[in-house]
Amino acid sequence: MSGPDQGGRERADVGIRGDPAQVAGAAKAARVLRRGGRLAAFWHVFEPPAEVADAFAAAFRREVPDSPFGRRSNGRAGGAYEAILDRAADGIRTAGGFGDPERWRFDWERAYTRDEWLDLLPTQGSLTRLAPEPLARVLEEVGAAIDAMGGGFTMSTTTVAVAAVRTGTA
């Protein structure tokens, strides 16, 4: 926090959103960010090895056949998020009080053990809403794929973001 404004309201230097929701909260962020503060909405785009991605996609399609999720991406990492990034930038523009939104992209890698990946997977996207029994079946199949690879893998990840600097006083 950067301290209260003239009206006694606390003002922040940074507002960060790391969830898949659109930036409907941009107007609220404009109210709490100080001038020069930054709003950043970001998403991680995981690109696991084909063996892990295929096991996940097959298991998820079996457990949630009507879901649009669980399909493999054939494009550039982060490309599937273009529409989300567009909506986030539009939300920031519509809220007003911010400069032009910028897009950021960070490519990175991380090694995961089977247990690390299976601990993280249920916290991501559509799996957060999956009932315990189907979730356990998805994790079992993904775990078997990781075991077949020797118990771990290195994953490429792209972090994509839309960020804008607070310009107004409204």
Can you walk through the features of this model?
It contains five helices and five strands. The chain has 170 residues and is of the alpha+beta class. Strands 1-2-3-5-4 form a five-stranded mixed β-sheet. Mean pLDDT is 83; it is low at 14-23.
Structural class: alpha+beta
Number of helices: 5
**Mean model confidence by pLDDT:** 83
**In sequence order, what are the helices and strands, one letter per element?**
EEHEHHEHHE
Tell me the major beta sheet. Answer: 5 strands, mixed
Beta-strand share of residues? 25-35%
Ends apart, CA distance between termini: 18 Å
Roughly what percent helix?
A: 25-40%
Strand order, largest beta sheet? 1-2-3-5-4
| Anisotropy-based shape | elongated
Pick out the low-confidence regions. 14-23
Q: Report Rg.
A: 19 Å
The number of strands is 5
Identify the notable features of this structure and list them briefly.
35% helix, five-stranded mixed β-sheet, 170 residues, alpha+beta, 5 helices
